[in-house]
Design goal:
Layout lengths: L3 E7 L5 E8 L2 E4 L16 H18 L7 E8 L9 H7 L8 E6 L9 E7 L4 E4 L13 E4 L2 E4 L16 H18 L7 E8 L5 H11 L8 E6 L10 E8 L6 E3 L13 E4 L2 E4 L2 E2 L11 H18 L7 E8 L5 H11 L8 E5 L9 E8 L3
Parallel strand pairs: 4-5, 10-11, 17-18
Antiparallel strand pairs: 1-2, 2-3, 3-6, 4-6, 7-8, 8-9, 9-12, 10-12, 13-14, 14-15, 15-19, 16-19, 17-19
Helix pairs in contact: 1-2, 3-4, 5-6
């Protein structure tokens, strides 16, 4: 029996425009767009799309019996830098109190079907939000460096600028050292430490910077079996810039030691686990559509079958089942591959009334991978 509770925002003819899943205390949404629920239309005007997306998010929260105060992180996905100016107006309308805002991360990558914005929200029902800052370091936009809500700690994007001076080293490894120091400072503000890190996104300017990341990673997390999950993205937004790295993290305080999980016969090139759990919350690294070292030509149908089979095995290794999956992020090379991927989705989650939240993004599927899965779940602690 599924342990998920699903709430939907209905659109025209009853079609669900967005979904919020409750799993334990966790709140996670699917992609929330600016489609008008009454007409099914998507305005070509950016300002209307952004206002519509934030309004749809608010209505979805209401249908789930929660509100903006229950959110710890908003991810804003846009197709390019030109759309950043449209974020803050609806953001401030939804979160007017500067001392009580969630963390926020903006990602840039192609969006499908004329969409100019997609939102995702992560939170905990009924818990008070605590603003977190790095002394001497701040964002230009009206958002905190991070927040703690319940035992969950979410960061906004964390960069390599030195607190107090705003200076940034030229060397990529020195930048990564500083970015991780900033992460540690932010965690300390929440009463936590690096041992409480559950998952990290690391955005790199160039593949040539990856060896430096691995060096810093092993310095920070030397013990195999006790590392956060991680997703590394070679990020076009950083190309040509002096900044080599950005990071964004999720941590869990007060829930004991990290537990790492692996899938037999499937792994990563980097020294990261397939998934990490702290207490009941599990967050995975990328679950690939092919085993490590397998460079044979495989189509999206075969890769999707492998990835979803690996997902099932991961949940078994973690002591759970697919009924414990709360959110599945599907990274693709091409949105045209979605029909084959969705065929596997429907086989794994046939009950439309009790599916996990889902978000599909054309960002971060590496190499010859046509599909990569990232899971958030609640599992036995």
């Amino acid at each position: 029996m599924s342990r998920r509770t699903t709430f939907t925002l209905p659109g025209r003819d009853g079609h669900a425009l967005a979904q919020l899943t409750k799993s334990g205390e966790l709140l996670l949404t699917s992609s929330v767009t600016g489609v008008d629920p009454a007409t099914g239309d998507l305005s070509p005007e950016p300002e209307r799309q952004f206002e519509g997306a934030f309004h749809n998010l608010e209505r979805l929260l209401e249908r789930a019996g929660v509100g903006p105060d229950d959110i710890g992180l908003i991810t804003v996905n846009i197709p390019g830098q030109d759309f950043r100016p449209y974020i803050n107006k609806p953001w401030l309308a939804l979160f007017p109190d500067e001392d009580n805002r969630p963390a926020r991360k903006t990602n840039q990558y192609p969006l499908p079907g004329g969409q100019l914005v997609q939102l995702q929200a992560f939170g905990i029902a009924g818990r008070r939000r605590q603003r977190l800052e790095i002394p001497g370091w701040s964002h230009r936009d009206p958002l905190p460096a991070g927040c703690r809500i319940g035992d969950l700690i979410f960061s906004s994007v964390v960069t390599a600028q030195q607190p107090g001076t705003g200076n940034q080293a030229e060397d990529a490894k020195a930048q990564m050292d500083q970015a991780f120091k900033n992460v540690e400072t932010l965690l300390a503000q929440a009463g936590a430490a690096s041992d409480h890190l559950l998952h990290m996104y690391v955005f790199l300017r160039d593949r040539a910077d990856q060896p430096a990341l691995i060096d810093v990673w092993l310095e920070r997390f030397p013990a195999g079996g006790d590392r956060p999950a991680r997703k590394t993205i070679f990020y076009d937004e950083l190309k040509g810039r002096s900044s080599a790295v950005q990071v964004q993290f999720v941590a869990v305080a007060g829930q004991g030691r990290r537990r790492n999980f692996e899938i037999p016969g499937v792994g990563h090139h980097d020294p990261i686990p397939m998934a990490c759990a702290l207490g009941p919350v599990l967050w995975s690294s990328g679950i690939s559509g092919r085993p490590v070292g397998d460079d044979s030509a495989k189509g999206v149908t075969e890769q999707s079958a492998f990835a979803f089979s690996s997902l099932r095995e991961l949940m078994t290794q973690a002591g759970g089942t697919i009924d414990d999956v709360a959110l599945l992020t599907i990274m693709v090379k091409d949105y045209a591959d979605q029909p084959a991927i969705m065929a596997e989705w429907r086989r794994m989650f046939p009950d439309e009334s009790s599916q996990p939240a889902r978000h599909t993004m054309a960002l971060g599927a590496p190499g010859n991978n046509l599909v990569q899965l990232h899971v958030v779940a609640t599992v036995p602690a």
